[in-house]
Write a structure and sequence with these properties.
Helix 8 (180-194) links the parallel strand 7 and strand 8. Helix 5 (95-107) packs across helix 6 (125-141), helix 9 (220-251) packs parallel to helix 12 (303-327) and helix 12 (303-327) packs across helix 13 (353-363). The chain has 18 helices and 14 strands. By secondary structure, it is an alpha/beta fold. The protein binds uridine-5'-diphosphate-xylopyranose. The site of uridine-5'-diphosphate-xylopyranose (UDX) has 20 residues, from helix 9.
């Protein structure tokens, strides 16, 4: 099948590379010439494990360009995977989505085409994109486009850091459209994943027990809502365990044991019950905010989702509160942050707790040192005004600090020589913001250990 993808961010690029690997002919379009030049040279603009390798494997089926014309004309399916960043008022900025829809309308030649919304777009955007494509087609061709194209929603559920794994071995595939022909096209497109008939790449082996992948084939609005409802549920699950964590700390319970004890109930499940500093990233904050905003348009409140957001906000304050409780005076202290990315295995800094925490500490008069195994370069580029000291290694970060905070649980940090780290600190105080370190081991090396919930 011939597929074009507009936008080469996390979602677009991952989708394009995976579909190319599965044998479809894929053209990735991006208006950013630098990005396209980089991709043409076999390099990727983002850090995602195995993306470069899978891109090389899919190379015969992949093309990159900055122009809509050819890529739109020949496609059976076009994915819109452009950014929908939050505007100052919190609502998503749909400028790029609108440009993409108009670009498609202008250039497609009238053969049946499925336009897929892959970006996380507000509920109802399917209809809106449809009207933009139609309008632009009519302006260009002088006649109606009715029946020639159809809009579908195909939300992604991939997690950064394991995006390729999640794309090749998803828990489910969701497609939504009010047009059966569009649903059939998407079913054919995803057949190799649904039936798991492809030969897995050696670095992304098929996990044991993965069989046929369930397909949810539904209407447009339901598919759009599934995406938001899933992300809001996961965000709420994390905030729930963080709220229980606060109580656990007061009553002297071990939150890890509590999470395990409730998670082994199959109705609850063990995943996304890791207590800590809370969620960041491009999705949970934006999607929960958009869900509340959409509900408001229908005069509905979303008190559960709002509470999840509030609990998450408070988790970041707790880092400062805990340090204050322990060090008594923060002014003039030096604090080291281990980890900048919003989670391990990515260099993404969107809504990263580390940025907020660094700001709060600076406001309190602290000197802040930071390290990240991968995201440091991006950090220096995106936050040139944040007056922190960037360190080349965790050991340098530890030099003369009054406390270290583990913000992102990179594997590298779990395996640090903590004896050396302790010897370089002014006082060996560690705040384990992800409850990821071995408390008794650290205490053996003389650390005063603080968890986020205990
Ligand atoms: C999320 C969804 O998981 C994915 O399905 C959707 O398509 C995009 O948004 P992502 O943001 O990449 O993916 O990361 P995820 O692994 O979900 O983690 C989000 C945040 O929650 C991270 O900051 C992580 O540290 C935090 N988290 C996750 C916890 O604090 N506790 C947990 O138990 C799990």
């Amino acid at each position: 099948m011939k597929v074009s993808i507009i936008g080469t961010g996390y979602v677009g690029l991952t989708t394009g590379v995976c579909l190319g690997f599965l044998g479809h002919k894929v053209t990735c379009i991006d208006t950013d010439e630098k990005k396209i030049a980089l991709l043409r040279s076999g390099k990727t603009p983002i850090y995602e494990p195995f993306l470069t390798e899978l891109m090389a494997a899919a190379q015969p089926n992949l093309q990159f360009c900055t122009e809509y014309a050819g890529a739109v004309k020949n496609a059976d399916v076009i994915f819109i995977a452009v950014g929908t960043p939050p505007s100052p008022d919190g609502s998503p900025d749909l400028r790029y989505l609108s440009e993409a829809a108009r670009g498609i309308g202008k250039h497609y030649d009238g053969d049946f085409l499925v336009v897929v919304n892959k970006s996380t777009v507000p509920i109802g955007s399917g209809n809106w994109v449809g009207s933009l494509v139609r309008e632009s087609f009519e302006q260009q061709h002088g006649h109606k486009a009715n029946g020639h194209f159809s809009v579908a929603s195909n939300p992604e559920f991939l997690r950064e850091g394991s995006a390729l794994h999640d794309s090749l071995y998803p828990d489910r595939v969701v497609i939504g459209s009010d047009n059966n022909r569009a649903l059939e096209v998407l079913y054919s497109l995803y057949r190799p994943i649904l039936d798991q008939t492809f030969a897995p790449p050696p670095y992304l082996p098929r996990p044991e027990g993965v069989g046929a992948v369930p397909l949810i084939s539904t209407d447009l609005a339901s598919a759009e809502l599934i995406k938001y409802a899933a992300n809001a549920f996961l965000a709420t699950k994390i905030s729930y365990i963080n709220e229980i964590g606060q109580l656990a700390e007061k009553v002297g319970a071990d939150i890890a044991q509590v999470a395990k004890g409730i998670g082994l109930d199959a109705r609850i499940g063990t995943r996304f019950l890791q207590a800590g500093i809370g969620w960041g990233g491009s999705c949970f904050g934006k999607d929960t905010s958009a869900l509340v905003a959409t509900a408001r348009e229908y005069s509905l409140g979303m008190p559960i989702v709002e509470a999840a957001r509030e609990v998450n906000r408070r988790q970041r304050d707790r880092v400062v509160e805990k340090l204050l409780g322990e060090l008594k005076i923060l002014k003039g202290r030096t604090i080291g942050l281990l980890g900048l990315a919003f989670k391990p295995n990515t260099d993404d800094l969107r809504e990263a707790p580390a940025i907020d925490i660094a700001r709060k500490l600076l406001e309190r008069g602290c000197k802040v040192k930071v390290h990240d195994p991968v995201a440091l370069e991006r950090f220096e580029r995106e936050y040139p005004d944040l007056a922190v000291v960037c360190c080349e290694s965790p050991e340098d970060t530890a030099d003369d600090v009054d406390a270290l905070v583990l913000v992102t649980e990179w594997q590298e940090y779990r395996e640090l020589n903590w004896e050396v780290i302790a010897s370089r600190m002014r006082t060996p105080l560690i705040l384990d913001g992800r409850n990821a370190l071995d408390r008794s081991r650290l205490e053996r090396f003389g650390f005063r250990y603080l968890g986020i919930a205990g």
